[in-house]
Structure formats: C-alpha cells, structure tokens
# Entry
Amino acid sequence: MPRIGIIVGSIAQNSINRTVANVLPSLVADTEVEFEFIDISALPLYNYELDGAWPQEATDFKAEVDAVDGIIIVTPEYSRSIPGALKNALDWAARPWGQNSFTGKPTAIMGASISAVGTAAAQQHLRAILGHFNAPTMGQPETFFHFSADAFGADGSLQDGTQLAILENFVTAAVAHITQFAPVAA
Ligand SMILES: Cc1cc2nc3c(=O)[nH]c(=O)nc-3n(C[C@H](O)[C@H](O)[C@H](O)COP(=O)(O)O)c2cc1C
# Structure
C-alpha cells in the first residue's frame, strides 16, 4: 500500500494551496493509497549549528518524510520563488549531510495561485532543488492551478468540473509516478 506524504508550501492558516491540497485525496479511487499531510509550520529556522542536537519538530518532520513512499508538494509562489518556509523544510530534510530524506524519494509538485501564470517560476526553482536532492520528480502534467474561492463550497469541496479534472489528472499521475519509482523494500 503506497503511503504518500503531502507537503503544503504555505504556513498560512487560510492557505489557498492547503484548500487545493485538501481535495487531492478524495480524487483517488484506489483505497489502497494512503495520504498523510506533513506539516512544516512548526519548524524553526534551519541552522547547521543545531546538527547533533536537533529540535524535536525537525526530528519528527524528517521521520515523517522518511516514512512515506513518495511526496506531493503543493506550493504557492512568493516573490517568483518558493516560500521561505518550504525552503527551510527542504533544508531540514536535506540534513544531516549524506542523509537527505528526498534522495530517491519520488516526488510530484504543483501549485495554486490567484494569478493565471502563478507558481510557474516557483515550480522551476523547486525542480532545481529536487534535482540536486536526486529525488525522481514527475515531469508531467505540469499543474498551475488558477485559484478562485468561488469554485469551492463551504465544506471545502471543489465544485468546478474543469478544475476537478485538472486535479484528478495530476493526482492520478502522481500516484502512478510514486508507485513506479518508490524504492522496493528489501
Ligand atoms: C510575499 C508574497 C509574495 C508573492 N509573490 C507572488 C508571486 O511571485 N507570484 C504569484 O503568483 N503570487 C504571488 N503572491 C500571491 C500568492 O499567490 C497568494 O498570496 C496566495 O494566496 C499564496 O498562497 P497561499 O495562500 O497558499 O499561501 C505572493 C504573496 C505573498 C504573500
């Protein structure tokens, strides 16, 4: 049973990317797939001087990344890049040196913005980081989700059929990618 971690790149309580990410698990018909949200909001700023005596939040975060077969990252774009909070989380995951939790971890990325072209620049930066990590990263479908609050019901469900199809296409491909590239347990 593949276990898939979902990381939202925003720590805003009313994050539009969280709103979108919350829809993804419901679009997977396969009940054998387990999704688990991995929170990055409690992480302190990474500092290599903490190596050897990590704060519990960082140890827990790294263990959560290690425990899943693959990761979906749903991120906003801040100032034409990824949010600092997401970069910080990736820095924690990359350490200690030689123990990068993303190495070999199949990963799929998408992002939501209120702008029509939003998150394209952020996703390119994220791809560069994941390439450096040697994380097999899904190439297609590239998903730049155009967020409109009107498309969501009060219960968080997405009402727009076209947008639902975009998300379903993404998460179906992400599950297939992670299943294909997940390391086989010995
Ligand atoms: C510091 C900051 C920088 C932003 N820069 C961009 C940007 O470069 N491109 C973009 O599409 N939206 C940008 N936005 C707008 C975000 O897309 C919008 O705030 C969105 O709600 C962020 O996603 P979130 O709610 O999941 O955090 C920026 C927002 C903030 C707070």
